[in-house]
Amino acid sequence: MKQLLVFVKKEFKQVFRDPRTLLIMFGLPIAQIVLFGFALTSEVKNIDILISDHSKDVVTTEIVSKIKATNYFIVHEKTMGDQEIEKTFKGGKIQCILIFPDGFNNELIHQGKSEVQIIADGTDPNTAKTMINYLTTILNEYQLQKFPSSALRYQIRTEPRMLFNEEDNGSMNYIPGVMALILMLVCTALTSVSIVKEKELGTMEILLVSPFRPVMVLVAKAVPYFILSLVNFTIILLLSVFLLHIDVRGSLLLLYAESALFILTCLSLGLLISNSTNAQQTALLISMMGMMLPTIIFTGFIFPLENMPWILRTVSNIVPSKWYFIIVKAVMLKGLGFRFVWKETLILIFMTVVLLSVALKKFKIRLQ
Amino acid sequence: MEEKVIVCKELTKRFGDFYAVDKISFDVSKGEIFGFLGANGAGKTTAMRILCGLSYPSSGDALVAGFSVRNQQESIKKNIGYMSQRFSLYENLSILENIEFFGGVYGVSRKEIKDRSYKLVGELGLQKEAKKMVGSLPLGWKQKLAFSVSIFHHPKIVFLDEPTGGVDPVTRRQFWDMIYDASASGITIFVTTHYMDEAEYCNRISVMVDGKMEALDTPGNLKTKYGSDSMEDVFYKLARAAKRTGD
Prior knowledge:
The structure holds 2 protein chains of 2 kinds. Chain A is built from 15 helices and 4 strands.
């Protein structure tokens, strides 16, 4: 036990002295979160909208201020004729135009209905649809607020709701995926590299000749990376909560327990890789490249698994991060308890046991 | 009678039909410097691995520090030190930290590590460098340090696998001075080397050819027996008969 402590202490020292390890450990998560959280989001923000208000009455003014109040639009106001519309779009800055016709309020009061025109730049259909949706929602909300009793008479309102993500926070879906990806890469890569490094340097030989039990070498390697990975996970979590404004709805304890389990799975995988190769480069290549692609493709946070052919869906079942992704989504985003994720948990436990026993079996007590 | 620390009886390691080590028998006395020679592929490494408790023999037995390589490997490991040609200290730990780590792994108490490591650093003349990373030291110093670390826990036997590979002649000479000191303090030295001038420094030499131990005597007696005036020549005469080549 004392020997193990000596080993773990040494391992920590080495981690904190190796800039490369530190960069992978802490630089990667931060970069990933920022990347996925801000750059790769499906929501549209800062839309330049031009509002051409020919009516300028109470209602239109209220609607405009409502639009301004959202985070989504940068409002430019200019009253203009139809012939200017195309020219405006060709200018490239304006993405969307909202036109209130003359006498908007009058018509609304006297005829019970009124029309606005939304013109969006259709060159990017996805963005255009999103913008129209935003505006429709704002108008509908306003109507409901203003004429609560009469609203039903006029139209059937559609009220699209993004369940569990009312604000349509696009980074939300990515975060559990990014967590899985980072933990997978960092744990697996660092563990395997640190063991293979000892083999390359020849220190492994010395350790095996020493009274230190060979299996304990693996344990001593796993302990620091387990702790560091939990720290890493905490960083990701803090970034998600404070930078991307994602709430943890479920139990934090459960989330940590499940993450600890997933980290164990990754560590076992790292140990297995390190026992199958003798060169740092190979270990790094296998764990970075070999794990990155399957994780991105088969976890389901970028490409929906439901749309894949059955054979690929079957393959995705052996990717541990897929199950962790499901668990984190359930616990963190939906606030579900353990009884909703016990199946996935069992699968992860099973994977860990299998990986670990194969790794131990392959661990060459005897040197080449 | 002198105390025997290694007693090897018909030790054999077979891989399929291939006899890597073929019934070798020899004794090594306490404090002796025992040279273990042989061309690449002669079976030196395999034999040494068995003696270090890293591998089991197919048949035969050997007692290392009084423990059998067949079933007392853990006890053997507590009583031996090991150093190989590939430099084996941690480059990104300081000299003191390396000593602390390896001392700790061998179960030396913390207080003792502290006392002894300062003494050791003083003996090596490395007081100024004690807190420097090992990676910044020249190779010769590293090797000397590695040797000191391998006998830090006062083992009965230290196994040196080509310890002076790539080291300059002056440092090699200093290295051998350290080996003599260790031997004088009662530590048995079991050393493999390809440098024949180093072989001359040994008390006794064995030469392995094709898994068998073809010669075992003092350097002087071997030279007389084979009518040569250098170990180089003795080795050449013996190794030439080998049918196996390379590792």
